[in-house]
Write a sequence for this structure.
């Protein structure tokens, strides 16, 4: 069989061209329907998502950071301002196309190519904005770049705003706080706040607490880019809005003076010798506070050791940062330090005694210097208590007991309250301490405040459960109640709590919330928020209770037997007769081998109180020796320079632009200044 037998001849087969055309036409018709359907889906059904996808591929939104608002003193003068500097930046795209530009920049600025590469690859900076290479660029370098643009393709210069401190970076550093680059955790904690990876944020102090006002509102720039990520142009720009300014109750002169008094005092204490122990007090830290007793306004707040805020502008190395942390320089001991209060706590016990009537103010007791607990077996737990110097004060009533700081008198009150707990309950003293605010947050407008505690059976159980090794004793004995009554045991309070307690007594019983900030104003000096005095609670202090205590506190300074009489007589340069000061020393025992905490808190003028001033020095020794001098010096300043009213207007004398060279590049960038 041949091939002809298998294949038909042309004349034997009927031609069917129409069928072929129908098949071809049907195929293209189906294809057309598919295309039209896809177009319908893209342009009608999925129109919004399609547009978004296209825009995502062609548009990039970059943030223009807003200039932070100012932090002003009560007179309107800036404590924290902004200064305009010039920053050199380099385009990543241009640097990739012309690598020699990095060498040229390195030769001009003195930076290494390695550092420039690190800045270009730093994920902190917006990838669609030129990367900052040098902050505070010298005028000569900026001028050279402007005169030779062809030699520096992709290099730009930009005015930026950085924080500056017209009164010096060491003034009230812990109160003012500092800003720094935002972390991933901070972005995650504020998902709807609009922060970017290159944003800065308030880290501590007022900068952190009032971040929502100070930061302003960032602007945006819509950039058109091609498929390779190259910027083609700007489509739309929204300018940023400068942040609001925070007006503080802080008095600049007083703050500067208090910072100096505290620092100088602690350094002098470290060089002194305790006459009893013959040791140099360690005095590792301390705090001082001045408040208005009638409003709660914080007029000055100092903490030591401290740091300089300029370090965060000029560049702080990791080693220096860690050293400051080790020293505790970033701690604000005025609101975070916990100190055994010692005899300053006697205000609370005296108030409880007179409120309950357990021991009348005019009743005498013979202070022999050694108190034996009635009915206690010799050698039992807490049977014998001694005055600090084992010297008895003789017959004392409540006012004199406060004046001479008779421990014996308050030992007796601690015993009486525990012996009569069926009548007064287990915690009558602690209840008064609570009303004075010594075991709770004061709600001061600063971050990371610590809460104090007042020793009690319940507190002992809680502390033991948390740390059995550090707090092994759970039971509560008569001796524990006696120790608590004069500010010992596990009682520990913050300086701001104690200052507020004495302010409450001074004004007649109203406990205010301490306020560092007075108001928020915008860039046009319009008031956004005005902070009014906020009452937290009351202590019942009728004349029958307040007068005997006040008499005793006045005697601390005025009486020849007063524990701070010698200190004030030596330091004050005003008449105590015309401007009387009332107050209380505190010498609080610490662990064996450690010097006691040194306290003094006073208010004046005692006849119509206006200011309360407190100082505490950890392990500083006797209250009259270490803490009282700071308070006396502060009153010297206050008498000579009464605190003026709050001015709700920025009194601006903005600092001139800087041109000092620096190597740090972490600055707040913006196209406007506040």
């Amino acid at each position: 069989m041949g091939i002809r037998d298998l294949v038909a001849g042309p004349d034997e087969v009927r031609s069917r061209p129409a069928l072929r055309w129908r098949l071809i036409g049907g195929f293209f018709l189906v294809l057309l329907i598919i295309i039209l359907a896809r177009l319908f889906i893209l342009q009608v059904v999925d129109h919004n998502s399609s547009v978004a996808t296209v825009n995502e591929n062609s548009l990039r939104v970059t943030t223009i950071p807003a200039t932070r608002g100012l932090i002003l003193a009560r007179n309107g003068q800036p404590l924290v301002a902004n200064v305009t500097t010039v920053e050199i930046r380099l385009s990543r795209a241009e640097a990739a196309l012309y690598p020699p530009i990095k060498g040229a920049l390195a030769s001009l600025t003195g930076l290494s190519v390695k550092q420039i590469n690190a800045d270009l690859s730093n994920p902190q900076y917006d990838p669609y904005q030129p990367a900052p290479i040098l902050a505070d660029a010298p005028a000569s370098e900026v001028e050279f770049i402007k005169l030779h643009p062809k030699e520096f393709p992709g290099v730009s210069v930009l005015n930026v705003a950085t924080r500056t401190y017209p009164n010096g970076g060491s003034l009230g550093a812990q109160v003012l706080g500092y800003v720094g680059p935002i972390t991933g955790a901070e972005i995650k904690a504020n998902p709807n706040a609009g922060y970017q990876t290159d944003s800065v944020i308030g880290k501590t102090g007022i900068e952190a607490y009032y971040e929502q006002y100070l930061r302003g509102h960032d602007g945006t720039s819509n950039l058109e880019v091609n498929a390779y990520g190259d910027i083609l142009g700007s489509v739309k720009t929204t300018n940023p809005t400068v942040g609001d300014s925070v007006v503080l109750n802080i008095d600049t002169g007083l703050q500067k003076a208090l910072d100096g008094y505290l620092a100088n005092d602690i350094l002098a204490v470290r060089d002194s010798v305790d006459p009893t122990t013959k040791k140099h007090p360690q005095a590792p830290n301390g705090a001082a506070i001045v408040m208005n007793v009638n409003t709660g306004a914080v007029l000055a707040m100092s903490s030591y050791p401290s740091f300089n805020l300029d370090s965060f502008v000029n560049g702080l190395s990791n080693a220096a940062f860690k050293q400051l942390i080790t020293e505790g320089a970033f701690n604000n001991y005025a609101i975070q330090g916990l100190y055994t209060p010692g005899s300053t706590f006697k205000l609370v016990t005296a108030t409880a005694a007179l409120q309950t009537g357990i021991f009348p103010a005019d009743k005498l007791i013979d202070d022999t210097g050694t108190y034996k607990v009635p009915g206690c077996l010799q050698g039992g737990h807490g049977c014998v208590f001694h005055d600090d110097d084992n010297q008895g004060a003789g017959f004392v009533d409540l006012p004199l007991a406060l004046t001479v700081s008779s421990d014996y008198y308050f030992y007796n009150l601690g015993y009486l309250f525990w012996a009569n707990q069926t009548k007064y309950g287990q915690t009558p003293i602690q209840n008064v301490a609570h009303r004075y605010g010594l075991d709770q947050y004061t709600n001061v407008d600063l971050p990371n405040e610590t809460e104090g505690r007042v020793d009690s059976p319940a507190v002992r159980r809680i502390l033991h459960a948390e740390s059995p090794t550090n707090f092994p004793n759970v039971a509560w004995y008569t001796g524990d109640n006696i120790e608590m009554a004069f500010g010992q045991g596990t009682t520990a309070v913050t300086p701001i709590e104690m200052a507020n307690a004495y302010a409450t007594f001074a004004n007649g019983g109203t406990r205010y919330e301490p306020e560092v900030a007075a108001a928020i104003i915008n860039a046009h000096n319009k008031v956004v928020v005005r902070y009014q005095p906020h009452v937290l609670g009351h202590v019942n202090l009728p004349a029958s209770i307040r007068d005997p205590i006040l008499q005793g506190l006045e005697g601390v300074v005025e009486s020849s037997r007063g524990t701070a009489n010698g200190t004030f007589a030596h330091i004050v340069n005003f008449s105590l007769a015309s401007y009387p000061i009332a107050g209380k020393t505190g010498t609080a025992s610490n662990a064996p081998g450690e010097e006691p905490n040194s306290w003094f808190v006073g208010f004046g003028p005692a006849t119509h109180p206006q200011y309360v001033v407190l100082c505490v020095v950890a392990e500083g020794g006797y209250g009259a020796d270490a803490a009282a001098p700071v308070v006396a010096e502060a009153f010297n300043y206050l008498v000579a320079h009464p605190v003026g009213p709050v001015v709700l207007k920025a009194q601006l004398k903005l600092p001139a632009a800087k041109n000092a060279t620096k190597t740090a590049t972490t600055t707040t960038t913006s196209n406007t200044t506040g």
